[in-house]
């Protein structure tokens, strides 16, 4: 093999063929997705946090490649996760809104016509486990066990309280009194279709369950796909005393609690890495770490140097910390500014798993396994979008290469050189009006591929759609004539 590589190298005079050859000869990796919830861009050490310690996560980031321009497909939870699992922009499959989380059992969920990445990996022979938050449908047919996961340990809603000794008595009391609905945040966790019997702080519980799955596969040749979706550091802000002690110097109580919650994730990641090493699975496990959307600085997060927060199409809403770690293949100590999307994970994982995609399956991302293994890439000319329906308006962000267009509500479109101006402070639409128009026109064209929502988050959302005020593409993509933003807009 060594000789073959040398021959290829000398004949081709470049490393591309060598890297492809290495990839082809690598056995299929285990895949571990570590997804945080509402983690800010600057809230891990490897992305520059000045006050949150994440030594285990940082060690992995240093041993892999950090992507500084990583985007998720939506600036809040449910649609972002639907996009991750389906490989589709949420607007293109009718899921631009969160599922309501009032405790009612609804019949809504991500359409079954969309094959999840877990289905594809399962069918390729992977052991598949979903651990943590789901938020893609409560009804049985939408549950992880019916969407390609051999195993599910977690909760179906959009968030959860963290201390079982606090939420379980509340749940039991309400249940005994016959209360309906009971909020999902206090419902006990499930292991497949049975009560999980959790006793520990939820972040620790989810880490421990991941370790259990890893240990359970010891000695087996079957690769695994674990989707570890921590609900930390999403609200409610609840941390363990021992973790809070690590951050005694942080004055703001929300920030201190948030930091301690992230620290608990880091502790879990360290323990999971130890389990992978003990089982000799570490070198052949691809670990992808990121957040489902930007942080909310009203709840302790820090997105510096990005503008905006969770929910926005400023960078702070959907540009997230991300790294890939896979000792066998991915370069260590590297940072890449190439824009990547969470939509890229589906085709990339399918490629690495040598999986077969369903016939006709549409994927909005692209296979980036070549980038991961160090192949030189041409300039990326695709657009990466974010599109959020507000109450009668849309926020839009679209990036291509160094450039990004942004529109917040009915404020004017702006154009930024996002490579030089990551904070979106210097609007360059006056200098490059044609560039702005071209990118807006392309985004408008993409918007025409959207379909109507399958459900609405609120009665007001539904009324706006039924009155024809949403989707509101006409107002959103009109560059010349702009209406004044409503004075209340910023407060929403
Ligand atoms: Ca989230």
Account of the 3D structure:
The protein is an alpha/beta fold. The chain folds into 2 domains: 344 residues, Alkaline Phosphatase, subunit A (3-Layer(aba) Sandwich); 99 residues, 2-Layer Sandwich (Arylsulfatase, C-terminal domain). Helix content is 30%, strand content 16%. The strands form 2 sheets. Strands 1, 2, 3, 4, 5, 6, 7, 8, 9, 10 and 11 form an 11-stranded mixed sheet that branches. Strands 12-13-14-15 form a 4-stranded antiparallel sheet, covered by helices on one side. Helix 1 runs antiparallel to helix 2 and helix 7 packs parallel to helix 9. The longest helix is centred in the middle third of the chain and has 26 residues. It is globular. The site of calcium ion has 7 residues, from loops.
